[in-house]
Design a protein that fits this description.
single chain, alpha/beta, Rossmann fold, binds zinc ion
């Protein structure tokens, strides 16, 4: 059986043309460049999205694009080491990337985010400028399995968010352990006023160390388990999405 996944960033024109001709499906990891406290690199969200996307493709199918490292990170806009695109610009980035792929003959794209604020913008892009206008089916969302990870974690989440805490730190220990400064990891649960989530207050206003949760509970073993979980759940979702659209998933 010929491989049903390919890392686009490492491949050449003929390899990509051949792949898309027999498997017109793309997984597009999208991340964010943003502060992750003293112990994780600012590329964390993009690296996690790329790792889960590749593991998902290996379990299902798809051409895995290099991750888009800029996202919608309004919450960090006043915080150094963080970059954000405006909502409208990010709508265009997603729309025009899908439009480019449609010119290759790609039929379906899974936009997989490693950053929690991207999916709301991608949803808007899909509804307002992709669906019915570009002949590509789009599946989007955070990598799957996050709720299960939060339930399995040994520390409480900060308001259900996953940022530089046990889960992201564990995933990074599995993906790129040499980039994790575990000796600098420390728990931090910044207090949040009652109106947090229903006012202008964002994580960037409330942050102290930049950590939201307890990264000291992270281990590489949990990270490997959660990477597998995310890839298993994401691959199942992607396959069922392709089947719902009657897009062939056989070799
Ligand atoms: Zn993150």
């Amino acid at each position: 059986m010929t491989d049903l996944y390919l890392e686009a960033g490492l491949a050449t024109l003929p390899e990509i043309k051949d792949f898309v001709a027999r498997c017109p499906y793309v997984i597009l990891p999208v991340g964010s460049t943003e502060q992750h406290g003293p112990h994780l690199p600012i590329n964390t969200d993009t690296m996690i999205a790329e790792a889960v996307a590749l593991a998902t493709a290996k379990r299902s199918r798809g051409l895995v694009l290099p991750g888009i490292p800029l996202g919608y990170a309004w919450v960090w806009r006043d915080v150094p080491a963080s970059l954000t695109l405006s909502f409208d610009t990010y709508v265009r980035v997603i729309t025009e990337t899908v439009e480019s792929l449609s010119r290759w003959g790609v039929k379906a794209v899974y936009v997989m985010s490693g950053h929690g604020a991207n999916p709301q913008v991608i949803k808007h892009a899909l509804r307002e400028s992709i669906h019915g206008k570009i002949d590509v089916k789009v599946l989007y969302g955070m990598y799957a399995g996050l709720k299960e990870m939060i339930a399995e974690a040994d520390s409480d989440s900060w308001h259900g968010d996953v940022h530089a805490e046990e889960i992201e730190t564990s995933l990074m220990l599995a993906i790129a352990p040499h980039l994790v400064r575990m000796e600098l990891a420390a728990a931090d649960y910044p207090p949040a006023p009652a109106d947090y989530g229903q006012s202008e207050l964002a994580m960037g206003h409330l942050m102290r160390s930049g950590v939201f949760g307890d990264p000291t509970k992270a281990t590489a073993e949990k990270g490997r388990r959660w990477l597998d979980l995310a890839a298993d759940r994401s691959a199942a979702l992607w396959t069922s999405f392709l089947e719902r659209h009657n897009l062939p998933t056989g070799e």
